[in-house]
Amino acid sequence: MTDTPTAKDPGGAISDFGIDTTSQSSGEAVRDYLARLRGGELGSLPALFGLGALVIVFWLLSDSFLTLDNTANLLAQGAGKMIIAMGLVFVLLLGEIDLSAGTASGVCAAVMAMHYVRSGNLLGGMGSTVFYVFVLGLVVAAGLALYMRIWVGAVMAAIAIAIAMLGVAPNAWIEMLLAVSVGTAIGVVTGFLVSKIGMPSFVVTLALFITWQGVILQFIGEGGVLGIGTEPTLFAVANGNLSVLGSWLLFLVAAGGYALVVLGEHFSRLKRGLVTMPTPLVLGKVAGVTVISALATWALTLNRSSNDFVTIRGVPYVVPIVLVVLVIGTYALNRTRYGRHVYAVGGNAEAARRAGINVSKIRASVFVVASSLAALGAIVYSSKVGSVDPQAGGLNTLLFAVGAAVIGGTSLFGGRGKVFHAVVGGLVLAVVENGLGLLKQPAAVVNIVTGLVLLLAATVDALSRRRAAVSSR
Predict the structure, then answer these.
(1) Which of 61, 64, 285, 466 is deepest in the core (most CB within 10 A)?
(2) Which residues are registered as beta bridge partners of 387?
């Protein structure tokens, strides 16, 4: 008769899972966290420390940096690139890259602005040849999406075709829907070339980066500008604010939702006897987030106008936009089968394939996500300036977006990262750009400092992976 293996039996199978039902004290949890840090699992911690240090430095060097007006402006300035970065996290998780996300967002912005300026007549704005090529491209994208069974891609491409062909009258919501639909269609084409044709993502997206730059020039014309600032809703996306009541309601929904999710998961694990963070630490985490959110909401509901005859108060609209994308992206990666498949493919594509995961579809889908969010980012950054020009999505837009994801803690090697990392990294880059601007530093200095910050983040990522590999042996 053989002995039944138990959790106390080192040789039994159950002992391998003993940690799942082992409670931890607060001290043990802290020591475990420090051990994981020493093992290379740094996450967004370096970026958070860097963000804190940068805020202190610019606060000491500039009296204008931590003013309410500049803080709100900083959030609006960085939101567009931050949203693009959140989409790129999905691509980076697979160890891929999308160099075309910036100019793809510019194409979406140009189509949106042209539809508004031309009163819904894209045929007249583009010219017959370009217009029919544009529609044909959307039709191809819809077909490719159906072939790859990416249903949302087919639906969004069909919506773009309908808006273009029917000459739908301009409306702020129609313009934004058109932009996102075009972005989704672009992502389908990119994903097909990478996943089905088998071309390296670097080569594909580099070629498309150049292609989309030419498309933007074709749509707008060299030296041309398409203004959207006269449309109140479009202009308010990045320049408007919630009411004071709306700001506090946002706080209640965001902080309350966070508390419910974190505490609900914690007590659910306790009820089932699974290992979890000690309750005092969880309560402290929730309390900290709540207090910081409340202070930020209170500060942003104060009047930040320097004009005695104008009142500007309330949380900027970009904050709930970023929060919604963050929540949806985090839920998709952490709570859905799709998210588990993304991490599995990013960790080991061959093992994922053998486990029955459709690797090709997952690889294509992340480019669809990235381009769709790039279009949303285009809406935000175009709203901030009130126009779209031939440089839309160009210059440093892509580099800052990729940099935001990597600086925040997403690995360039795939398999490790969170949507939250893009938010943290985006704040770091926004602080650098805004702070140096207040100090009247030229663009050269901004680029040098940003590049060094990105280089430092990539170095930390490489070293932490090496440390993790050594620790696992």
Answers:
(1) 285
(2) 227
